[in-house]
Amino acid sequence: MRKLISFVHISLDGFVAGPKGEMDWITINEEIFDYVGELLHPIDTALYGRVTFEMMEGYWPSAADRPHATRHDIEHARWYKKANKIVLSRSLEGKSFSHSTIISSDVAGKIRNLKQASGSDIVIFGSPGATHSLMKEDLVDGYWLFVNPIILGKGIPLFAEIKDRTKLKLAESKKFSSGVVALQFGKD
Question: Which of 101, 99, 100, 98 is nearest to 110 (CA)?
Fold first, then answer.
């Protein structure tokens, strides 16, 4: 069975974005990009909420073609173009995007079916609203957290919709020179 993994930058106090969705506090650099590239290499399916998908779709399809594209832009754009994209959205229903499937109803049932289908694990990028709805249905199997050395005090929490205690097991950790710590957790 495929696992559904939440992949997110998070503040030390558990927020994935500031109160207005700000993400200017997130530390990203080549060291982190290289690590993320290794993690994503075997993944063929990404899941997004509408807002995150529109942000990604506005950048990645042409990122490699830009005059000053970085190595990361080129590599991730290549991955993004090939990846199967699942988008949870009622407002995008009926629209078509390359390698993308829009799910607008029976989200839990369709995600359960997707997890039973063949393929690699599925990564949820950011998308706190989508992640919260999938957590409510106990569909998230693991977390790849990039803990940034900052306390926001308020914002959009990652674990806002957890109903019951969930025991996790640390699978891997990595400290970066920036102070960011990557933690990979799976259900126990």
Answer: 101
- Say whether domain 4-151 belongs to CATH 3.40.430.10: yes
Q: Please indicate, yes or no, whether the overall pTM of this predicted structure exceeds 0.85.
A: yes
Burial 42-55 (b: 16+ CB within 10 A, else e): ebbbbbbbbebbbb
Pick from 153, 145, 123, 141: which is nearest to 48 by CA? 123
pLDDT per residue as tens digits for the range 157-168: 999 877 778 899
Q: Which pairing describes strands 45-49 and 84-88: parallel, antiparallel, or unpaired? A: parallel
Interacting residues of 102 by C-beta distance below 8 A, sequence separation 6+: 87, 89, 92, 93, 94, 95
Domain assignments of the chain as residue spans, ordered by start: 4-151
Of the candidates 7, 8, 28, the residue with the CA atom closest to the CA atom of residue 179: 28
Going by pLDDT thresholds of 50, 70 and 90, the confidence category of residue 127 is confident
